[in-house]
Write a structure and sequence with these properties.
The protein is an alpha+beta fold. The chain contains 5 helices and 23 strands. The strands form 7 sheets. It has a 5-stranded antiparallel beta sheet, with no helix packed on it. α2 crosses α3.
């Protein structure tokens, strides 16, 4: 046999052998492991629950009112000031000293306009009593200055770190730095330590009082219920139209750091817009279900199906990260599990 013919024969034998080995290997190969085989689709999912306050971040338009100031009531030399822009002045503390004697920061509903001695009567006396009680001191409940009035004022001065007034000494209104709120944020410190000041001079400027505050718009799909705003760490009540009507709530916004900083950056007298959370005061308990389990959501008669396939009426109140939040509707009860396989819909 010639050499060429032998080579062809050898190649043919090798090819046939390889083909046979491949066929044998294919026939002997095991099937797909059961663990890797496609499983049956999941058609039933347990319903879990959570608290849901339907939070939204909305624009709050704030309209400033009149400017506010802390003034001094007597002539003298300012020997102490711990005032700092952005800091606070709190009722019952002392920030300024005049001629070496500290002034008591005090918020009263009516500014003190006269020195009050035993026997004096008036609405200013009642306001002083209310302020002292608010600071935790045992002031009388009435509109007449008594020994109890003077004792409570003496205790307030001592609590602020000031020397105790003599027993029976009248309340000297010129030793009080009146504050328009229990705690106010300073926008600018005007008088510095070492300054000569005259009665009526400004010691510190405060952010302007707020005349109105309201949400720019309300989302149409919000869950009904009483709501509040959160401004910094304070909860502020708001009515159904998105307005802040309560005077104390307006004061809380005016004293917040968010408003103070925004107002300082805005033109004088211009409205300020803050972005604030708006949420339900009382959270709802909602069921968490897969989006695929909710049917007819666009029709206003949404439903889910329980494990037996029976429709259960629900309201869709929100969604997040592939989860739909629902509450029962029409006195229904949320099922323990919902089906996710296709079905005709809520009306069968």
């Amino acid at each position: 046999m010639r050499a060429g013919s032998a080579s062809v024969l050898t190649l043919a034998l090798l090819t046939a052998s390889a083909a046979g080995l491949a066929v044998g290997t294919w026939l002997a190969a095991p099937g797909t492991p059961e663990a890797l085989a496609a499983g049956a689709p999941i058609t039933e999912v347990p319903v879990t629950t959570r608290e849901f306050a339907d939070p939204r971040n909305l624009a709050l338009r704030v309209s400033p009112g009149e400017a506010r100031e802390v003034t001094v009531r007597a002539d003298g030399y300012l020997t102490r000031s711990t005032c700092t822009p952005g800091g606070s002045l709190d009722s019952g503390t002392s920030t300024f000293a005049l001629d070496g004697a500290g002034l008591l920061n005090l918020h009263t509903s009516e500014p003190l306009w006269r020195t009050l001695a035993t026997g004096d009567r008036g609405t200013d006396v009642a306001a002083l009593h209310e302020a002292l009680r608010g600071l935790g001191h045992d002031a009388p409940d009435g509109d007449r200055v008594t020994a109890g009035t003077l004792r409570a004022y003496r205790d307030a001065a001592v609590a602020a770190g000031l020397p105790a007034p003599a027993w029976g000494q009248p309340v000297d209104h010129t030793r009080v730095a009146w504050l328009p709120a229990p705690s106010v944020v300073v926008s600018r410190c005007v008088a510095a330590t070492g300054s000569d000041v005259a009665a009526g001079d400004v010691l510190a400027e405060l952010p302007a009082a707020i005349s109105a505050a309201a949400l720019v718009s309300l989302p149409a799909d919000a869950v009904p219920g009483e709501r509040a705003l959160t401004v910094d760490d304070q909860q502020v009540p708001v009515d159904a139209e998105g307005r802040v009507a309560d005077g104390a709530a307006l004061q809380a916004i005016a004293g917040s750091r968010s408003y103070t900083e925004a107002a300082a950056a805005a033109e004088a007298g211009a409205d300020v817009t803050l972005t604030v959370p708006w949420s339900l005061v009382t959270s709802l308990e909602v069921g968490i279900v897969p989006p695929a389990s909710v049917q007819d959501a666009e029709s206003g008669t949404a439903c889910v199906r329980d494990a037996t396939g029976t429709p259960v009426a629900v309201r869709v109140v929100g969604s997040e990260l592939g989860q739909t939040y629902v509450t029962p509707a029409d006195e229904a009860v949320l099922p323990a599990a919902v089906r996710t396989d296709p079905a005709p819909g809520c009306r069968g």
